[in-house]
Each structure stands twice: as C-alpha cells, then as structure tokens.
Design brief:
heterodimer
C-alpha cells in the first residue's frame, strides 16, 4: 500500500512541477511562493 | 469597496473574519473541534474567483462560500467511525450536524447573491468528492492509476470545477496536483511513522486531519 502511495506521489510531483512551470506567472505572489516552496522542499528531501 | 486598494492579505483577512462570523455557533463550538480555514485552498479560490464582472465584495463572499463548502466536507471527515461510548456517540452526531451547518451556510450565502450557477458547481462537486471518498474508504480501486485518480478527485474536484467555471486555467491545472501531492505526502509520512501497513485508516477521508506547519502539511487531529 505504501509503495503504491509513493509511486502516485512521484507521478503527481512531476505533474505539479510541470503545471507550475507553465502557469506560475498567472498566480498571485502568495500562491506562487507556496507551491514553489513545496516543490523545493521535496526536491531537497 | 474599491478593488484596486485591496491587497491579497486584506482579502484573506476579510474572508477569514466572515467565515468565523458566519460559522460561529455557541453550542456546536463547545462540543465539536473547530474547523480552521485551509489557507492553501483560500489562496486558490481567491486566485480564481476573480471575474472582472464581479464587485470585490461579491468575489470575497463567493470565496467565503467556497471555504464553507470545504469546511463542510472537512467536518464530515471528522466523524468517528466506530464509537461505542455514549459521549462519543453524541460527539459523532454533533459533528455530522456541524458539517450540515456549514453546508447550509454556503447555500445561504450563494442564495443571497442569487448565484444559482455557482450553487450547481458546488453541489455537483460535493457529490463527486463524496463518491470518491466512499470508493477510497471501500478500497475500491485497482492499481496506481485509479488510486491517483480517486485521491485527486477527493482533494481537488471543488477547486478545479470552480476554476473551470471562472475559466482560470492556472488553477484548473495546478490545484489538482498541488492538493493531491500535499495529501499524499502526509499519508506516506504517517504510514512510515506507524511502521505498519497503515491500512485504510490514513487513506480514509474519514480520518481527521488539519493543516499545520509552515509547509501546510497535515497532522492527525488529536
């Protein structure tokens, strides 16, 4: 079960990163910072 | 209200204040855990409920209504599944009642605004979200594709549909992976901490969670 969740998380991360790179400029500053922070944190982790 | 003068933080504060004012209920507050606003979702809704034809107050009231829908869905997640003790049984009933209370508030907000189209968006989203929750609770999926789909539907149907309604492309595409990823991180972390197959408990949307910490991860409600 946990393995399934890890696989799904990896796939969703890639989708999030792609969507962020495409749409980041349309977001308000707070939201952009928040998602950027989440991506960066988990890239490092 | 003059739109140009409103900063994002001021919008958040307005929504927070209205949400607190509308949702305050002396008796329920004594017996049921207070639902706090999910700031990530508030940011997403504030981003997309920004149609130029709406006055600033209309945008903020619609965003507050969306947060009330989210509160209704979250509150129903707090309903304990197996309670034998009588005091827990009362808590369970009141938690259901609190969720219904939030639902009535969102409906009342939109009725005052006479925004029937948005009511349809919300009600359709609630139905779809709950259907996904039931399937997750039943372990009714086969393979990671379906699991991903169900968690995504559960986490982001409401905001995605609002994004579609207001034609906000960024929110439509970003909200689902953002909210789903956030949820999955919590599930994985929790499963690792428990050092056991976490079974349905963490996956179950009926498990209580609340946003905490600077990254807005979730923590099990104590």
């Amino acid at each position: 079960m946990i393995q399934q969740l890890r696989i799904v998380a990896e796939r969703v991360y890639v989708k999030l990163e792609a969507a962020y790179n495409t749409h980041e400029r349309q977001l308000t500053e707070h939201l952009s910072n928040r998602i950027g922070e989440l991506l960066a944190h988990n890239r490092e982790g | 209200m003059q739109q140009a003068e409103w900063k994002e933080e001021e919008r958040f504060q307005w929504i927070q204040d209205r949400f607190n004012r509308l949702s305050a209920h002396r008796y329920l507050n004594q017996h049921v855990s207070k639902v706090s606003i999910d700031r990530d979702k508030m940011m997403l809704f504030t981003n997309c409920i920004d149609a130029p034809e709406l006055a600033e107050e209309g945008k903020l009231k619609r965003t507050t209504a969306a947060m009330l829908v989210d509160a209704a869905l979250t509150t129903h997640q707090y309903v304990p599944l197996h309670n034998e003790a009588r005091d827990r049984e009362i808590e369970k009933q009141l938690t259901v009642l609190a969720g219904d209370w939030f639902s009535s508030l969102y409906y009342s907000e939109l009725a005052k605004l006479e925004d029937v189209k948005l009511v349809r968006v919300f009600s359709g989203s609630i139905q779809k979200t709950n259907d996904a929750k039931i399937r997750l609770h039943e372990h009714d999926w086969s393979g990671v594709d379906e699991l991903e789909s169900l968690v995504t539907i559960m986490e982001s149907t409401l905001i995605k549909n609002v994004g579609v309604f207001y034609n906000h492309e960024a929110v439509q595409h970003l909200a689902p992976p953002f909210l789903t990823y956030r949820r999955l991180l919590d599930m994985i972390e929790h499963a690792e901490e428990k050092e056991n197959p976490f079974g349905s408990a963490r996956l179950s949307p009926l498990f209580a969670m609340e946003p905490v910490g600077k990254l807005g991860m979730y923590r099990q409600k104590g």
